[in-house]
Specification:
Elements lengths: L18 H10 L2 H8 L5 H5 L34 H6 L25 E6 L5 E4 H7 L3 E8 L4 E11 H8 L7 E6 L19 E5 H4 L5 E6 L2 E2 L9 E3 L12 E7 L6 H5 L23 E4 L5 E3 L7 H4 L14
Bound molecules: ligand MTE.
Length: 327
C-alpha cells in the first residue's frame, strides 16, 4: 500500500525514487511485479503526481448536520482525533494516491445514490440511499481506526449496525460471505486511469463478521453527513481490522457462499490478506505493526491486538487457527 510521506515521522519526498527512474522501472516491470511496485512505499510520490494531487481542489461539498445519541458501550479509550485531521488525511485511491485527496474527492456525486443488493438473497433489488436511511435508527460510536500503513485515528462515526443492513437484505441460508463493491466512475475518479489496480474497489467479510455487533455502516462523522473523501454517502467501519477492509462509497452489496477476493488481495495477496485483523506481533512484510502514529501527533504508541476490540471479536476466530488471520 502506498504511503505518501508528508509528516515529521515519515521520510522526506526527496528520498523517494525520482519519477523518471520510477517510470523507467515501470516500463521494465510487468504483471505481478508492477503490482508490487505499485504498493511499494518509495514509489509513492512519483505515482501520485500522475493524477490527483496536482489538480486544483474543488470547492468543498456542503455537509448537513446529522446528530445521533452516542452509544457509550464503545468507548475508544483515547482522545477523539481533530476533525480537520480525519478529513484531510485520507486514503481514497479512486481519487489519487496522495493523502490529500480531499479536494479531488469533492467531484464525487452523492445524490442520487442507489445501492444494489444481490447474490444469494431472497429478493435481489436496488434501494435508494434516502430510502435506506428512513429504515435505520442512527447512533454515534467513537471507534479507533488503524490503517495498515501504521497511522491511526479515533472518530465519532454516525451510522447503524451492519447486522441491520444484512437483515434488510435477507441473505439465503447458504450465503456465507458479504461483499461490498464501491463506486468506480471514470468521469469523476482520476485514479481509475491507473489500470494495474483491479478496480472496482471490493471488500468482503464472513457473514459472522458482518453481523458482529462492532461492524458498523457509516453515514456520517463529527455530527454531520459523511464528507466525500471519507466515503460518502455510505461506508463500513470495522475497527478490529486494518482500515482497507472498510470500503467507502458502497454501491453494491452481494451475498455469496465463496470467499471473495478483495481489491488489495488481488493486487498483492502476500501483503494484504482476506482477514486483515490488527496484530502488533505480525509485521507487514515491509514494515512493523508494533506501533502506530495517531493523526495530529508525532508520537508512536503501541498497537493493540484486534486494535483493542478482542472482547467483541476474538471469539469469532477461535476455530480458524489454520487461517492467516492477521494479514
Ligand atoms: N475504499 C475505497 N473505495 N477506496 C480506498 O482507497 N481506502 C481504504 C479504506 N476504504 C479505500 C477505501 C483504506 S486503505 C483506509 S485506511 C480507509 O479507507 C481510510 O479511511 P479514511 O480516509 O476515512 O481515514
Amino acid at each position: 500500500m502506498l504511503i505518501r510521506r508528508t509528516r515529521g515521522w515519515e521520510i522526506a519526498e526527496s528520498k523517494a525514487t525520482p519519477e523518471a527512474v520510477m517510470l523507467g522501472r515501470r516500463a521494465m516491470l510487468g504483471g505481478a511485479a508492477l503490482a508490487a511496485a505499485a504498493v511499494a512505499g518509495p514509489a509513492q510520490a512519483q505515482l501520485s503526481e500522475l493524477f490527483g494531487p496536482s489538480r486544483p481542489p474543488n470547492a468543498m461539498r456542503a455537509l448537513s448536520p446529522l446528530s445521533a445519541a452516542r452509544n457509550a458501550k464503545y468507548e475508544a479509550g483515547r482522545a477523539i482525533t481533530e476533525e480537520r485531521q480525519a478529513t484531510t488525511y485520507n486514503n481514497y485511491y479512486e481519487f489519487g494516491l496522495s493523502k490529500s485527496v480531499y479536494g479531488a474527492a469533492q467531484a464525487l456525486v452523492v445524490e442520487p445514490w442507489t445501492i444494489e443488493i444481490g447474490g444469494m438473497v431472497a429478493k435481489p433489488r436496488k434501494i435508494g440511499f434516502d430510502d435506506l436511511m428512513k429504515q435505520m435508527a442512527l447512533e454515534e460510536r467513537v471507534y479507533r481506526h488503524r490503517c495498515v500503513e501504521t497511522w491511526a485515528m479515533t472518530v465519532p462515526w454516525v451510522g447503524f449496525p451492519l447486522a441491520k443492513l444484512v437483515e434488510l437484505c435477507a441473505p439465503t441460508a447458504s450465503a456465507k460471505y458479504v461483499t461490498f463493491t464501491t463506486l468506480a466512475d471514470k468521469k469523476t475518479m482520476p485514479g481509475l486511469g491507473q489500470r494495474f489496480y483491479p478496480w472496482p474497489y471490493l471488500e468482503g467479510l464472513t457473514l459472522q463478521e458482518a453481523t458482529n455487533e462492532l461492524a458498523f455502516m457509516v453515514v456520517g462523522m463529527y455530527g454531520k453527513t459523511l464528507p466525500s473523501q471519507n466515503g460518502a454517502p455510505l461506508r463500513v467501519a470495522l475497527p478490529w481490522k486494518y482500515g482497507f477492509k472498510s470500503a467507502k462509497s458502497i454501491v453494491k452489496i452481494e451475498f455469496t457462499d465463496k470467499r471473495p477476493t478483495s481489491f488489495w488481495e488481488a493486487l498483492q495477496d502476500e501483503e494484504y490478506g482476506f482477514w486483515a485483523n490488527v496484530n502488533p506481533k505480525v509485521p507487514h512484510p515491509r514494515w512493523s505493526q508494533a506501533t502506530e502514529t495517531l493523526l495530529g501527533s508525532d508520537e508512536r504508541v503501541p498497537t493493540q491486538i484486534w486494535n483493542g476490540y478482542g472482547e467483541f471479536v476474538a471469539g469469532m476466530y477461535s476455530d480458524k487457527s489454520g487461517e492467516k488471520l492477521f494479514m
